[in-house]
């Protein structure tokens, strides 16, 4: 069973940072809405993506608010993990943690905590076609010409006899 895991993502990011890749950028060439435009829908163009989405490994590691949010989401995932293990008769060896971070999504008019959304394409949201797995491109940090997230997920899944396919 595959589960998304903020803890696994932070372990990977910390390993990259400790290895001298703290300035490696994620989401290169991608754009996002500016905070002032979160509710600025243009019927002819949708949401306008005005800001660069590029962020470094160190930016993510140093963002204490993001880390706190993800610690909470990891607790929720862990609670569900225990239920799934009990109900399906699984052990820890049956579970593979895929790196994933989440960000809080709040409704502007509501003061209560919002829902979580994947901070990058959620790697557990894949298409399974027999032994072929098609996962979304995560836009992770490029280390020596290779996406570190793609390389890590490949190292976790290929030993299972799968053939991993990534778009682009």
Automatic annotation (TrEMBL):
GO terms for molecular function: calcium ion binding; protein-arginine deiminase activity. Gene3D superfamilies: L-arginine/glycine Amidinotransferase, Chain A. InterPro entries: PAD (IPR004303), PAD_C (IPR013530). GO terms for cellular component: cytoplasm. It comes from the Eukaryota. Signal peptide: none annotated. Residues 1-163 form the Protein-arginine deiminase C-terminal domain. This is Protein-arginine deiminase type-4-like. It comes from Branchiostoma floridae (Florida lancelet).
């Amino acid at each position: 069973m595959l589960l998304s895991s903020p803890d696994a993502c932070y372990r990977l990011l910390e390993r990259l940072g400790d290895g001298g890749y703290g300035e490696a950028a994620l989401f290169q060439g991608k754009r996002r809405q500016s905070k002032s435009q979160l509710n600025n829908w243009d019927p002819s163009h949708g949401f306008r993506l005005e800001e660069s989405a590029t962020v470094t490994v160190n930016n993510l590691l140093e963002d204490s608010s993001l880390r706190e949010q993800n610690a909470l989401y990891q607790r929720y995932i862990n609670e569900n993990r225990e239920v799934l293990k009990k109900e399906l008769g699984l052990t820890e060896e049956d579970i593979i943690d895929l790196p994933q971070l989440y960000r809080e999504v709040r409704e502007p008019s509501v003061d209560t905590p919002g829902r979580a959304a994947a901070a990058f394409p959620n790697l557990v949201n894949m298409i399974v076609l027999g032994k072929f797995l098609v996962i979304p491109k995560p836009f992770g940090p490029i280390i020596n010409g290779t996406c570190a997230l793609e390389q890590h997920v490949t190292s976790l899944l290929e030993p299972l006899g799968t053939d991993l396919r990534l778009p682009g």
